[in-house]
Design brief:
Blueprint lengths: L2 H10 L5 E6 L2 H10 L4 E3 L1 H8 L9 H13 L5 E4 L7 H13 L4 E5 L20 H14 L6 E6 L8 H14 L3 E4 L7 H10 L5 E3 L9 H6 L4 E4 L2 H20 L12 H8 L1 H12 L6 E6 L19 E2 L2 E2 H11 L4 E6 L11 E5 L8 H7 L7 E6 L2 E3 L1 H7 L6 E6 L12 E5 L12 E7 L11 E10 H14 L10 H10 L5 E5 L3 E3 L3 H10 L2
Parallel strand pairs: 1-2, 1-8, 2-3, 3-4, 4-5, 5-6, 6-7, 7-8, 9-12, 9-14, 12-13, 16-20
Antiparallel strand pairs: 10-11, 14-19, 15-21, 16-19, 17-18, 17-19, 18-20
Helix pairs in contact: 2-4, 5-6, 6-7, 16-17
Amino acid sequence: MSTKCKKLRSIIKSNGLEFILEAHNGISAAIVERAGFKAIWGSGFAMSAQFGVRDSNEASWTQVVDMLEFMSDATTIPILLDGDTGYGNFNNMRRLVTKLEQRNIAGVCIEDKQFPKANSFIDSNKQPLADINEFCGKIKAGKDCQADDDFCIVARVEALIAGWGLKEALSRAEAYREAGADAVLIHSKSHRPDEILAFAKEWENRLPLVIVPTKYYSTPTDAFRKANISLVIWANHMIRSSTKEMIKNIKKIFKSESVADIEDKITTVEKIFNLQGVDELSQAQEKYLGEKLDTRAIILAATRGSELHGLTHDKPKTMIRIGGEALLARTVNKFKKIGINKSIVVAGYKAESIDISGIEIRVNKDYEIGNELISLVCAQNDFDDDMVISYGDLLFREHILRDLLEVDGDIVIVVDSALDNPNITGSPDLAYCSQNDDRSPFMQNIILKELSSVIRTDNKKSSGHWIGMMRVRKEGRNWIEEAIHELKPSPNFKKLTLPDLLNYIIEQGKIINVHYISGHWLDVNSIDDIDRAGDFTQ
């Protein structure tokens, strides 16, 4: 016996009011389940739309059933199919039920219209309905051939929405009950629930009653409870909401000839991976192939923020909220989105106030007298053969981090080649590189020559600004650890910066690579920066 069939039957027969939501493919079905819904409405309208055809049986029943199989495989909750008219006569109905059960679909709703159907909301005129006896035959045929006693057949009464009136609706519903239907769906295109509630009152709960408040959606759900409605179907809201977002974002992409401005505002690829069950595959790869991504982040966030004292009385700069979320939390979440789940945060000022889930904190006790290199040393025991080191006061688009992970090199730093970037404040770290950014679409082999906080006296123009982020692999880790060991005896060691560290490594003959970007980031040093940050996150 199918567990999904049992689940659907218990939902329909529940003493309380239940809700199910539309889905139209595997990933939308997974989203519905993860949202907490107990069951899915396999909408004929939505599935037709995602196929790009009209809701007039232009998608064949075999195409619908094939899609349902993906939806069922992607979920553990039951699916109630919007089966239109049953795709033909009683014989088509028998085959439909058989094929649905084979794919672990828990039930089907069929409507008493003529085949091929017309969407109820398109034609405002009085629509023809199926012969009552013929429709009862479909119900009986479906019930007779079902292998699972819990498989549900819901009879959808179209008399109200088709303009036939309450009396006809009640007469048809009773006939379908006698034919063996497990529930009755009563439909209406009125913007008020009056005729639905009138039907429910006269129906007197003879069978579970199902409704689809597409037009009368503003009705308080308590009204449905009082009317003894069993199940509410939100019938098309997944396809409509996703279509709206697609149209909006496509317009932006077309106009800007870029995706940079929307990338942070749309669902991440990692979220899609998660819905697809990629985590399980990753675990399997680790088990069977020994493959594991273990990149970690080290985030330097020890300072108070010299120009932000009014906002940092009780917290460090990185805990200032930008767009409703702490700056540090935004950074950590950026790392998580691309699969870097281990973040080591080096705190200092008001370290105890940092309350971010999923991080490990190391404390720099010398934050008042030291610079960022001493903060990095505090995390030296956490060094790994693949890590991203970043300042904690950065805001950046996700693609910057994602692209950085694709660049070859033992140490790769991110340099903004837009020298006129208004988002750069404070004392910028000027990068002098082997060649300037030629905006090539291909990966460039650019080598860092020097980082400096002052303009060079030889009139050589800088290639851009280091943003305070770098990728370090195994050999680069060794270089950093050797440099720290060699620099520690220096009396001014605690005053050294990360640019000092990188310049020292270059002096030892090591190659540090550069990944060029052009804008799409900012650092937060002042009140004006916070204002810009608010706009940046919109």
